[in-house]
Amino acid sequence: MHDTPAARPGHDGSAPNPYLPQIATVSEVITETHNIKSFRLRLDDEEARRNFSFEPGQLGQLSLFGAGEATFVINSPPTRKEYLQFSVMRAGEVTSALHGLKPGDKIGLRAPLGNAFPYNKLKGKNLVFIGGGIGMAPMRTLLLYMLDKRKDYGDITLLYGARTPQDLSYAQDREDWLKRKDMRTVLTIDAPAEGWEHKVGLIPNVLTELAPSPENTVAVTCGPPIMIKFTLQALEKLGFQPEQIITTLEKRMKCGIGICGRCNIGDKYVCIDGPVFTYAQLKNMVNEL
Amino acid sequence: MAMNAQSKFVSRDALSEFLAELSARFRVWAPRREGMEGAGAVMYRPFDQAAGVELDKKPTESAKRVLFPPAEALFRFRRETDGGLSLESPPDPGPTLIFGLPPCDARGFLIFDPVYAGSGTAGRAQDTYYLRRRSKTVLIARACSRVLSTCFCHWVGGGPAGSEGADVLALEADDGFVLEAVTPAGAELLEGKALRPAGDKAVKAAEQSRASAQKNMLPAPGISEAPEALRRRFDDAPFWRDEAAHCLSCGACTYLCPTCYCFNMTDEGAGTSGIRLRSWDACMAPLFTLEASGHNPRPDKAARLKNRIGHKFSYYPSLHGQRFACVGCGRCIKSCPSGVDIRRVVTDALGRETASAGAVPGKEKRHA
Ligand code: SF4
Ligand code: SF4
Ligand code: FES
Question: How many domains does chain A have?
Fold first, then answer.
């Protein structure tokens, strides 16, 4: 059962310290909803800023020194280099502290972490984005990336839902998405609301009603666990194969580099093997979402 | 490794002198009995000539704290008056030596190594803190001349006189120890003045103690099928509910384990300065996987025990060359306040295809 052990690992001093954040400055704070704010950051070090590269779907660890670290997807696309954007839902100690940030404040960043959406393999495909609540954040990265490289991709449909109109983020983006002729945007809320001109109904139901064709199409979805569960069922009923469905997982993370042992699903680590998985991959993993 | 010309002898009386000699070059750690005479736990502590070394009773805790401290500052942060922020990493550790650890503890570090060295996947991050210490640490293991009823190192590829992972192996012989070099770094340690060449009599006694411990171990069941069996068992909820029924979620098992390497990261201090702390954490703790949304993928102790056993006997082997992430030290069995026995969980998983099929012969039947 045992291999001969490899030579004792050493450390030659050249490997970077993976726990040391880079210092960044908050350039803009956008209040999205009553509990979600988006932060735009710039790395302080000019060289680090120039060398920083990432792919849509990758994560970052934001540090508020004294409060701690928390994990978020980078939700601005790599095609827009002026800032890195993170959307933070207030839910605990660190996120509450993050909500107190103002432009000019210092923050720590460890990024990029994890894998990315297969944006190259998706070239030439039709895309259906299905985002629920804060789950729109990772969708936004890939969607903006594709809109910036519009001719590389086929038809793009976005279905974005939240509980109430006030729970929808990215107001400016939404206005733009609704106006664009090169994509179809459908917004939905759970229950009727005064002045609402879009769909009313749960995301999986609206998806079934829209009935996108699975032909040469890939669905990308992210949202709360219960929404994902029924969305996957709806997609399968529409004829989407597990390989045609991509999702990005949220897990409690600490190290973000596959060491601290916190984010595993069986022998997969969401921080390095994910956060992006196809539904086919998820089906092969142990059932512990 | 066979006895060879390099083998040396150190008497129990000269041990202290040998360790004092080594202390000039290394920060030496050794097991020591704590608390009231005879009653306390045996813990790894910086060597102190006055306090002595405990080599007869198995250390209560594992040696992992030397390379993976229970709490360590990853960096210090400081807010400058001009609004700037500075981060300061801790200084490099110096050369370190662990003396007197049992073979299972020496092997325990081999479980840490590939994870902390980021092996396997290109571009994986390396844990510079662990690796700096690891590359400057030498291990003088001492073979066990007595085995405990909880010891099962031989189930998982080790043995009471195993030298894997050690630089020197010390074997009990008469009134002292025969020291065998296992690695070049170990050979170099045996050049000390407090040592004399091992004579024929000592070598013979050492061979005897090597053989006798091995003899005292009961035959090991084959558990090479455990990775697959545990995978198949994943959705067998009654099985896991049953195995975890008495667990208190105290985490003692993980804290004492030489291969449990999970950690937490938290900040201490606020205002103008503080530290980011890395501290041991336990997958047996209810909040370990609790997400910000309130969702917990491992909501009960059955799910948590399943992860702990699954990681050691299924997930880790599948990622790291089929090596189990358990060295069979038995500490989790000995120190569990409610009698959870990892050996039984593994053999049960191997033995019963479905929860309702009854217990393995000879095992207590817990499914009426
Ligand atoms: S020591 Fe025993 S009771 Fe405590 S967490 Fe481990 S298995 Fe459960
Ligand atoms: S799981 Fe238990 S027996 Fe195995 S190495 Fe850890 S403490 Fe020792
Ligand atoms: S967050 Fe530490 S292993 Fe994934």
Answer: 2
Q: Residues A53, A153: one domain? A: no
Nearest to A287 among B127, B234, B270 (CB): B234
In sequence order, what are the beta bridge partners of B87? B77
CB-CB under 8 Å, B323 with A258: no
What is the token pair recorded at B223? 């558990």
Which among B89, B224, B315 has the least Cβ separation from residue A264? B315
- The complex's ipTM works out to 0.91
Q: Do A251 and B291 touch (CB under 8 A)?
A: yes
Same domain, A87 and A145: no
**A182-224 tens-digit pLDDT:** 999 999 999 999 999 999 999 999 999 999 999 999 999 999 8
d(CA A85, nearest CA chain B) in Å? 20
Domains of chain B, residue spans: 8-215, 226-365
Q: Are residues A88 and A164 in the same domain?
A: no
In this structure, the answer to whether residues A82 and A109 fall within a common structural domain is yes
CA distances from B267 to A181, B252, B275, B278 (A): 48, 24, 6, 9
The string of pLDDT tens digits covering residues B10-25 is: 999 999 999 999 999 9
The predicted pLDDT at position B38 comes to: 61
B3 class by beta-carbon count within 10 Å (0-12 exposed, 13-18 middle, 19+ buried): middle
Tell me: the pLDDT tens digits for B334-361? 999 999 999 999 999 998 544 443 333 3
Helix (H) or strand (E) holding B277: strand B273-280
- Eight-state DSSP code of residue A250: -
Q: How far from A68 is each of A20, A91, A97, CA to CA, in Å?
A: 13, 14, 9
Q: What is the reported pTM?
A: 0.92
Q: What is the DSSP letter of A229?
A: H
Nearest to A127 by CA among A266, A244, A36: A244
Domain that holds residue A46: 22-113
Tell me the residue length of chain A.
Answer: 289
Same domain, A236 and A171: yes
Tens of pLDDT, residues B274-295? 999 999 999 999 999 988 888 8
For residue A191, is it within any domain?
yes
- The pLDDT tens digits along chain A (289 residues) read 333 444 677 666 678 899 999 999 999 999 999 999 999 999 999 999 999 999 999 999 999 999 999 999 999 999 998 999 999 999 888 999 999 999 999 999 999 999 999 999 999 999 999 999 999 999 999 999 999 999 999 999 999 999 999 999 999 999 999 999 999 999 999 999 999 999 999 999 999 999 999 999 999 999 988 899 999 999 999 999 999 999 999 888 999 999 999 999 999 999 999 999 999 999 999 988 8
DSSP state, A120?
Answer: T
Cα nearest neighbour of B272 on chain A: A66
Do residues A133 and A108 both lie within one domain?
no
If asked whether residues A214 and A105 sit together in one domain, one would say no
Q: Any idea what the CATH number is for the domain that residue A99 is in?
A: 2.40.30.10
Quick check: B76 and B274 in contact, CB under 8 A?
Answer: yes
Angstrom distance (rounded) from CA B238 to CA B244: 10
- Quick one: tokens of B366? 């817990």
